[in-house]
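Same chain as my last thread, 368 residues:
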Amino acid sequence: MERLLHSSLVSKSLREVGTMPIDVVVGGQFGSEGKGKVALWLKRTKRDHTIVVRPGGTNSGHTAYDRDGRRLVLRQLPAACVDGDVEIVFPAGSYIDPEILQRELNLTGIDPALVHIDARAQVILPEHRDAETQSGLVGSIGSTGSGTGAAVMSRIARYAPDHIRGVPIEEHPFLLRFVDDTSARMTRALAAGDGVLVEGTQGFGLSVLHGDSWPKATARDTTAAGFLSESGLPPRGIRDVVMVIRSMPIRVGGDSGPLFGETNWDAVRDDSGSRESVAEFTSVTNRLRRVGHFEAATVKRAIAANDPTMIVLNHLDHIDACVAHDAAMSAKAMRFLEEVETGIGRAIDFIGTGPERLSANVPAGLCL
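reply #2:
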């Protein structure tokens, strides 16, 4: 009876809140759109997030700059946690590599007491990484070999063989200290009107369900609905879906699937007028990324599937290096921006012109 009464009171309190302050950050292309930067920016500007949620595993890295300007590449911790002032939730739909988590806690100096892992989350074991390496996935589809895919398989197969069998979080000596009822924790925060930020991973084009390049895809869905499901959060609670795209989409190196208008980083540098190399390397495997020209079709499908309330376009400086200085716009950059908006049928709300810089899509001036 007490349990039923508690559940009734919580449900009533959530209904009274109305639209719950859940914000979800998603990628609209093939990952590396700058979701970590945007998630941290949201946390710093909205200021009501008390919980940051990181579904998924360690097969992608999120980059953030702490308040001292230190560049941090995180594979397990969410980028939005680097200020050390929010609770960190790894929900049931997350895949935890104990070694990486411990290393990143040491790197960031985050208080371990802020970390909460759902008992239903999955442990990534060395056996999972070995299984991916031995399967040839790294070469055949451009997998990062993190073991996340094998851990997903061990969860859904149910009859998985011993070499990819899962281990409950509570049976791992290092992770046991973090086990928590993450659903109840997030429910309490939402009932109090506190914001919950879900930092999605990878990009729409890599979704195993909705992407067009299977089997050269990730092992999970990468839509806002998928991230909410993995997090155990109610779909009616969304306040904002923030979709992040980039001017020139990338894919990981190797045979990782089709990429529209594929070019190379020297051409990007020369076309943008940059005086420095603009080449990018994957944060997990340190392989040179592939780069292509903007293609509206994938982004339009991502918009249809996610219905974003806000769209951020990063790496405008890859179109014209001029915009990296003082967030000034050039005629070339403005033409590109107009072409993107026409192609996707939506306005761009914010633009990114450097590793840390985001500004509203209102030109601050022209650089010539």
